[in-house]
C-alpha cells in the first residue's frame, strides 16, 4: 500500500509539471485568432521547453525548421498589433521576447540562419512594489506591435517565453519558442538591428539566463539579447 501511495504521489507531481508547460500554437491578426499551426510552424516536442541554448531548436523550437513548407504566410500591416496564443496559461516566471528575421524570399523555404534576427518587443520583471514580480504569469496570449518602419517583405516572427524558475543553476533556463511566417505590408524604410543569430544570441551565463529569482531577493533583472528595435 505504501508503494501504491508513493506511485500516486509521483504521478501527481509529473502531471503538475506537464500542466505547467505550454506552447504557442496560433497567430493573432487584426484581433482574430487564426487556426492552430496555420501560420505558426508546428513543433515536435509538444509543450516541452528547449533547454540547450546551443541547439538549432533555439531558432524555431524542436521541429520548427522542418515544418515551414506546411505553414502558410499571414499578411500583416506594419504598425499594427499581432500576437500569439498559448496552449496553457503561463505558469513559470520569466520574460517574453519577440524577434523578426527578414526572409530572402518564400519564408516556407528558409531556416532563419545567420545574423538576421532583431528584437521588436520585450516584457520583463516588475519592481514597482519594491520586490520582483512577473506580470506574465496567468496570461493566455500576448500581443505586440510590428514597428511601422519595418520594411515590406516576408519574415519569420519568433516569440519566446523564458522560464527562469530553475535558472539559478546553469542549464536550468527553459525556452518556450514558436515562429510564425508573415508578409509585412505598408512598411517603412527602417534599418532593423542590431542583428543576432540563433543559436548564438544568448550565453549560458548571461545575467538574465543564469538568474536566481528567489534568494537573495533580486533588485533588477536584465532581459537577454539585443536591445529592442522600435524603428
UniProtKB/TrEMBL annotation:
InterPro entries: AA9, AA9_LPMO. Residues 1-20 form the signal peptide. The keyword Signal applies. It catalyses: [(1->4)-beta-D-glucosyl]n+m + reduced acceptor + O2 = 4-dehydro-beta-D-glucosyl-[(1->4)-beta-D-glucosyl]n-1 + [(1->4)-beta-D-glucosyl]m + acceptor + H2O. Its EC number is 1.14.99.56. Its cofactor is Cu(2+). Transmembrane segments: none annotated. It is found in: Secreted. Residues 21-221 form the Auxiliary Activity family 9 catalytic domain. Keywords: Carbohydrate metabolism, Cellulose degradation, Copper, Disulfide bond, Metal-binding, Monooxygenase, Oxidoreductase, Polysaccharide degradation, Secreted, Signal. Pfam families: AA9 (PF03443). Belongs to the polysaccharide monooxygenase AA9 family. This is lytic cellulose monooxygenase (C4-dehydrogenating). It comes from Phialemonium thermophilum.
Amino acid at each position: 500500500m505504501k508503494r501504491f501511495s508513493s506511485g500516486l504521489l509521483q504521478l501527481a507531481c509529473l502531471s503538475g509539471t506537464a500542466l505547467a508547460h505550454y506552447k504557442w500554437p496560433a497567430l493573432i491578426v487584426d484581433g482574430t485568432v487564426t487556426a492552430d499551426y496555420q501560420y505558426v510552424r508546428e513543433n515536435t516536442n509538444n509543450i516541452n521547453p528547449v533547454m540547450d541554448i546551443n541547439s538549432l531548436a533555439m531558432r524555431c523550437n524542436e521541429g520548427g525548421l522542418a515544418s515551414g513548407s506546411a505553414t502558410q504566410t499571414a499578411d500583416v500591416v506594419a504598425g499594427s498589433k499581432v500576437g500569439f496564443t498559448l496552449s496553457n496559461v503561463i505558469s513559470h516566471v520569466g520574460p517574453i521576447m519577440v524577434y523578426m528575421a527578414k526572409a530572402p524570399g518564400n519564408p516556407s523555404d528558409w531556416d532563419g540562419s545567420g545574423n538576421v534576427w532583431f528584437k521588436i518587443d520585450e516584457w520583463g520583471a516588475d519592481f514597482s512594489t519594491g520586490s520582483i514580480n512577473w506580470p506574465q504569469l496567468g496570461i493566455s496570449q500576448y500581443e505586440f506591435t510590428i514597428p511601422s518602419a519595418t520594411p515590406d517583405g516576408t519574415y519569420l516572427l519568433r516569440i519566446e517565453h523564458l522560464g527562469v524558475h530553475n535558472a539559478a543553476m546553469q542549464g536550468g533556463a527553459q525556452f518556450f519558442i514558436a515562429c510564425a511566417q508573415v508578409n509585412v505590408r505598408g512598411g517603412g524604410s527602417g534599418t532593423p538591428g542590431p542583428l543576432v543569430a540563433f543559436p548564438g544570441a544568448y550565453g549560458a551565463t548571461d545575467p538574465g539566463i543564469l538568474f536566481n529569482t528567489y534568494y537573495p531577493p533580486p533588485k533588477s533583472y536584465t532581459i537577454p539579447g539585443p536591445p529592442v528595435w522600435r524603428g
